[in-house]
Amino acid sequence: MTRMIRIFDTTLRDGEQSPGASMNVEEKLMIAKQLARLGVDIIEAGFAYSSPGDFEAVRRIALEVEGPVVCSLARARPEDITRASEALKGAPRVRIHTFLSTSDIHLKHQFRMTREEAKKRAVEMVQLARTYVDDVEFSPMDASRSDPAYLCEVIEAVIAAGAGTINIPDTVGYAVPQEFGGLIKRIKDSVPNSGQAVISVHCHNDLGLAVANSLAAVVAGAGQVECTINGIGERAGNTSLEEIVMGLRTRRDWYGADTKVVTEELSKTSRLVSKITGMVIQPNKAIVGANAFAHTSGIHQDGLLKDKTTYEIMRPESVGLEQVKLVMGKLSGRHAFRQRLEELGYKLTEDETNHAFERFKRLADQKKEIYEEDLEVIVSEEVAKMSERVVLKSFQVESGTNKTPKATVELEIDGKLVSHSGTGDGPVDAVYRTIAAMTQTKSKLLMFGVNAITGGTDAQGEVSVRLEEDGRTVSGHGADTDIITAAARAYLNALNKLAYFAAKQAEGIQKVSLI
Ligand SMILES: CC(=O)SCCNC(=O)CCNC(=O)[C@H](O)C(C)(C)COP(=O)(O)OP(=O)(O)OC[C@H]1O[C@@H](n2cnc3c(N)ncnc32)[C@H](O)[C@@H]1OP(=O)(O)O
Ligand SMILES: CC(C)C(=O)C(=O)O
Ligand SMILES: [Mg+2]
């Protein structure tokens, strides 16, 4: 049977402890509403005592967000607990989360309390919180560096005082998985009344182990995991919600546990939190990073195209993304190349594909990523080139102020070199008129456009033209760092397509559509 693990989201409290991530009331409310759509069980909306803004955020979220339990953090001090209760007053499902350290390091250096004093304070504050609300959580801060025997004593006492959830924090991210799982098991086995409370965990990522520690705790019997969207939080952050949730969902076979999170909302929630907090998501971040479902290498892309299960353990749709992204670049192979061309509407023969693929690989050696626009240029230039009647050999243009532009163009037409000169209204017009005279085309130029394709220092200028002849319209593209060369190529590209289609039509074949 699958055990359901409660998801306690603390993006709005511990997440806000990330440097620079503070959120105003409206922003917190927006995130809380999205967390409710995501289906988390508990939202820790803030720390009501810490500021009037946080008090207001807790109050409004508790009253306005439907679904999850809404919680406020409170130190083990009467003024904090009373303030939390005021913020939560009148709301339907609320929790007070109070905490006090149990480690000797904290008790000695920060709290200047004895173990007995701390235990007494913890019990009194849980009892006080219970006078306000039924649902009280207690965290023995720095639990993972506490003496386990004393920790268990405190836990037993606060459960007896009325705490329904005991949250075990690895406050400084010091624990390692087997050890942390062992601690949870020890608590479950040796605290006599542990069965009366949900055992929760709250891990920090200082050693990059927050998710691993939380999963180890689930194996050991933890029933609640505290986590944040995108793993934000104090220092290196907290357990990432999307990772723990997808870890349990994807490996339910192993953990025998799951959550009620609507995983299709994960990407949207992640983007919202990133936008509001200004905390950028690293591209290789599991589940929600830009590259999490992107496949770059030809061998992986080939496998995926044959069957998704070859290289995919989760469907991107399951986290709210539309589809697998095949990144076209120098490591891609023919299968992915052909697939991408088909998506763009090009159905090429084997020969045409191979020809275009060679040019693609050459370009990919020079550019980091190949965009759709690059592929369009490659196909329209390379495929038409295979049946090119007319090839540009060279040209010169003379132009300047007070001078009629003159072009001299050398073409190879059906294998024969031909040279001709002509004039025009500008340098491009001179080249176009000269080519038109040489090829004796009857086509009409419907459109001429210049674009800078892709950005950066490796950008090429692209010229696009549209020609019409005998009721057939074709586009032509030419790319070059010299814009007149790009214009000449675009014109010849379109003229060659007209010739290609005319020839295909004569053969009764319509093999490829290049518009
Ligand atoms: C592990 C965690 O993430 S805990 C949550 C951490 N989050 C925050 O601290 C954010 C919100 N905090 C704040 O706004 C402020 O720190 C406040 C309003 C809570 C307190 O501000 P100040 O009164 O100026 O105290 P300051 O923050 O400098 O020091 C903390 C005090 O709280 C005490 N304290 C800390 N944790 C607890 C606790 N769990 N229970 C009781 N007292 C505590 C400290 O011992 C110290 O007391 P002292 O002044 O008697 O030495
Ligand atoms: C308040 C507690 C749970 C905390 O954030 C921690 O110990 O890290
Ligand atoms: Mg924390």
The mean pLDDT is 92
CATH architecture identity of the largest domain? Alpha-Beta Barrel
Strand content: 15-25%
Bound molecules: acetyl coenzyme *A, 3-methyl-2-oxobutanoic acid, magnesium ion
The value of Rg in angstroms is 33 Å
* CATH superfamily placement of the largest domain: Aldolase class I
What's the total number of strands? 18
Level of helix content? 40-55%
Helix/sheet category: alpha/beta
* Strand line-up in the sheet with most strands: 2-3-4-5-6-7-8-9
Describe the largest sheet. 8 strands, parallel, barrel
CATH-derived topology of the largest domain: TIM Barrel
Mind telling me the CATH class of the largest domain? Alpha Beta
Shape: elongated
Secondary structure tally, helices: 17
Distance between the termini: 57 Å
Domain count, please report it: 3
List the uncertain runs.
509-515
Q: What this model shows, in words?
A:
There is one protein chain. The chain is α/β, with parallel strands linked by helices and 515 residues long. The protein folds into three domains: 3-277, Aldolase class I (TIM Barrel, Alpha-Beta Barrel); 294-383, Orthogonal Bundle (Recoverin, domain 1), CATH 1.10.238; 388-507, 2-Layer Sandwich (Double Stranded RNA Binding Domain), CATH 3.30.160. Helix content is 42%, strand content 22%. It has 17 helices and 18 strands. The chain has helices spanning 25-38, 52-64, 78-88, 104-111, 115-132, 148-161, 177-190, 210-219, 241-250, 252-255, 266-277, 298-306, 334-343, 350-366, 372-386, 427-439, 483-507, and strands at 3-4, 6-9, 42-46, 69-75, 94-101, 136-141, 165-170, 198-203, 224-227, 257-258, 294-295, 325-326, 390-400, 403-413, 416-423, 444-453, 460-469, 472-480. The strands form five sheets. Strands 2-3-4-5-6-7-8-9 form an eight-stranded parallel β-barrel, surrounded by nine helices. It is elongated and about 100 Å long. The model is unreliable at 509-515 (pLDDT under 50). Bound molecules: acetyl coenzyme *A, 3-methyl-2-oxobutanoic acid (KIV) and magnesium ion. Acetyl coenzyme *A is lined by residues 14, 17, 47, 49-50, 75-77, 99-100, 110-111, 141, 171, 234. Acetyl coenzyme *A binds next to strand 5 and helix 4.
